[in-house]
Amino acid sequence: MAEEKKNEVVPVTAEYEVVDQVDDQAIIELMTGQTIQDYVYSFKQGGRTVEGLTLAGINEAANRRGGIQVEDVTYEERDHSWIAVAKATDTITGSSRYGAYEQAKMMGSRPDPFAFTKAIHKAQRNAIKQLIPVPVIREVLNFYLHRKTQGGAAAQQPRARQGGGNIATAQKAAFAIASQLDAPLEKKGISKAALWNYIKRRYGVESRNDMSEMQWTELAAELKAAETSPKLLDDLCGRIKQSNAATEQSEVPTPEEPPAEETAAPKTEASKSQDAPF
User: Fold this and answer.
1) What residue segments make up the domains of the chain, in order of their start?
2) Fewer Cβ close by (within 10 Å): the C or N end of the chain?
3) DSSP string covering the chain, please?
């Protein structure tokens, strides 16, 4: 009886904050191009061992099960938080579940650049988890717990560059996600030039070298959110079109490349990438 309780997949109650922090880190790793390390969590509380799947583990379980799709995501911006609601459907059984999440915009005293993305991912997590059969959850849980215990010291190594001033990593993440969005944006009539013009106007920059790590991180989060659902993609396309229209109305048209640069020397691939990084 005691053994059965020990291995139970415990619902998230008092340990919610611990699990949420693990999932926060998984989302940041996803957004910054790091390798997600934690598929399961396991810790002691009140004399018992609490075990379960993180956001990454839930997605892995859903992939193993198959047939689970996120059909809709809606969101609302409030003064101090983002609220997201996701609908997931099991295409095999026809069952649907809703998941919601409210994410604060601040981490302590500073803005959280991932707040919007966290709200979206956690709402999807909460919807998907309800559709995964318990045997599949146990299979994934046991597999990754076994790997974690067998990993020894390697599993305990500190993570590299958590939150840490690595602009190249943030930039790389934005490039990778933008590349994935190439085809969907083209279908919506959004060219790479239009996307770059939107980015320049939004952040007040002329070159990718003008952008800070925080800006790259925010951009990656925005693009990743658009990749998660058709509605969020439509919202992004709407912002891009609105921004480009405002630019055309408010600014005197100028050549894309200054004449002095065109006559001085041909542009190299490196210099071209500064003007349009995507």
Assistant:
1) 2-152, 167-250
2) N
3) -HHHHHT-B--SSTTHHHHHHHHHHHHHHHHTTPPP--SEEEEEETTEEEEEE-HHHHHHHHHHH--EEEEEEEEEE-SSEEEEEEEEEETTT--EEEEEEEEESEETTEE-TTHHHHHHHHHHHHHHHTTS-HHHHHHHHHHHHHHHHHHGGGGGSPPTTTT---HHHHHHHHHHHHHHTHHHHHHTT--HHHHHHHHHHHHT-SSGGG--HHHHHHHHHHHHHHHH-HHHHHHHHHHHHHHHHHHHHHS----SS-HHHHHH-PPPHHHHHHH---
Q: What is the pLDDT of residues 243-273, one digit of tens each?
A: 888 877 765 444 444 444 444 444 444 444 4
CB-based burial label for 97 (10 Å; 0-12, 13-18, 19+): middle
Cα–Cα distance, 67 to 124 (Å, whole number):
15
* Cα separation, 118 vs 264, whole angstroms: 47
| Location of structure tokens 């839930």 | 58
pLDDT tens per residue across span 105-144: 998 888 988 899 899 999 999 999 999 988 888 888 888 8
